[in-house]
Amino acid sequence: MLKRNIVHIIGLFFLSLPFQVSFITFDPNLSPRFFFLSVFLFFLSLCIPLDKLSFKKSFNYQVCILFFCFLLTSFISIFYSINSVDSFYYFFKDFLFFILFLKIVFIINLERKNILILFRYLLVQNFLIGIITLISFFIKTPFTIENEFSLILGHENLLSAFFMLHLPISLFVLIKDNIFWKLIAFFSLLTSFIIIYFIFTRSVFLSLIISLFFVLITCFIKRFKSVKNFFFSNNISYAIKSIGFFLLVISSVFIFHNNVEKKYIKTDINTIDKSGSFYERFELWHNSIDLIKNESFISGVGIGSWKLVFPKYSKNTWRVMKGDVQFQRPHNDFILMFCELGIVGFLFYSLLFSFIIKNILIKIYSSRDNILYYLILFGVFSYIIFALNSFPRERFFHNVILVLFFAISTSNKNIFLNKNLKNYRKWLILLIMFFSIFYSFTRFKGEIYAKNAFYSMKNNNWIQVIENVNKINLNFYNINPVSAPIHWMNGVAHLNLNNWDEAIQSFILAEKNHPNNSKLLNDIASFYYLKEDYYQAIFYYEKSLNLAPLDNQTILNLTSCYHNIGNLKEAFVSLKNYIEIDNNYIYYYNSIIRSVADYINLKIKIPIFREKVNSLIKEESFFQRFRAYNDISKKDIIESFVFFVTHDLRNDEIINSIEEKNLTKKVLYELEN
């Protein structure tokens, strides 16, 4: 009885997963779904003992070995990653997907019709989310937020990819099921295409076109047996119709592409700000390759550590240079795997997809009723192409669909053997899954308190910040989804309460968890600035500017440090890097000029020169005139100031040109000595 109903339990899990949303965590999707998946799979493991499965003498053997080797590589990388607490999250997530894969294989091998049952649940899910999304175009719902179509998938591009991955499922039900399910499948497909059209994610359209192309090529080879037969077969009309269909799809995309792009995509070829463009994405890929070359080609930087190491290699990206953003992923899951797990993990990850495609092709060429495998091939290719341009690996539901495709492509009725797993292996797996439940629940609670602390910090409620941080188990959750260490918030709160010792301890721990966060380094520097330890402050401000060289606030802070220690030349060099003319800039600039004037008056005893300096400082137009002169002269500020004063004396006809040169030389000589 349980075996008969277990497929419906898994189906209900599929149906409910996208609706596992929490509005009290930073990311409304990741933490609640991680906990939900952990609990569900532990329960499922008790219902379906793992000793029911063995994979010898089947396609699954190769796939499972690759999957296991990938998991092992991921686990080993935890021990050399920067933040092992956060790395465990990524390992557990992959481990849970592996267990889910085994369970779905078991269900499919009980009865092949279970595939259709699972597809029905996914079809209902797709239809419901489609309706919610269409409504959200016009009306704000509990699952929508401003500027986003839906909270269910977290991002409009991922939402579009969600409907793309459902296309094979809806098409299969439309072709193979009864009239009732055909109608649901038809409307589900209709809503999917409407949403994909209106969101117009270019990576999704690219995935659809390339996947369709590969499936048609596979179909041609299957039908004509060879390329030669394809061109010389009497049934050439079939090929013409197929090619015509493919060209029609492509042309349709490009016909409305321009209209949609004008509406949704803003471009400006004259600006150096390429944020949100393909240019920025190519920069991410290029800089990630630099990370691979310079960090560890063989083993990578550790699972989940790309976001912690990458800031060192993103200094030529505009938004990073200004300190406006810290990227969380390279928008290419395969490059991400290479960066984090090195060539070894990358090969296991890539070979896993290769063997899955191999299994699908074998099933296509060895069976008559192969429409299911054509559609699964389309789905897997769509995921791969999308993963080359985005980050579906981060999101739970995209991976659940992929695991289902994997299970269908590798399932085989001959996988059941009487040989059981050894007891210690069964208990080890259950123990890992139980710990995953504890870990996911602790992270879920930690993210709730972290979000509360964040909003308390915005309201300057520093005591409340500390109370919320103290409720977090930092052994299991020490960095939020946007790579801000929890200790950082604690340090800022203690700093504002003048708890100096607690503040610096928190800042040191935060730096250990994320050593390449420019904003964190700026705050540590500010701590030393307030303590009047200007040299240590300069050290951290320069570290921050090494990661974000155009962060205006950090530049101003560094300028102030140099000014306070009397290093006026470095202060001015620092200020020259400030890119926005605003009140802060003018204040610091004028302050440095006054300091230069005071410095020169102390060093120079020539009456005519000193009198001119004192009179210029009192003029309202002086500072603006000097800024313009200095920009042209390209000298350091002190030398430029001397030339400006002597030149002004000549313009006032107090001295002639020869006297100007002599006075300039004399003043510079006295300053140098």
Question: By helix and strand content, what is the structural category?
Answer: mainly alpha
Give the H and E element order.
HHHHHHHHHHHHHHHHHHHHHHHHHHHHH
**In the CATH hierarchy, what is the architecture of the domain at 466-672 at level 2?**
Alpha Horseshoe
Percentage of residues assigned to helices: over 70%
The multimeric state of the shown protein is single chain
Tell me the fraction of residues in β-strands, as a range.
Answer: under 5%
Give the CA-CA distance, first to last residue: 97 Å
- Could you please say which CATH topology of the domain at 466-672 applies here? Serine Threonine Protein Phosphatase 5, Tetratricopeptide repeat
> What is the radius of gyration computed over CA atoms, rounded to a whole number of angstroms?
32 Å
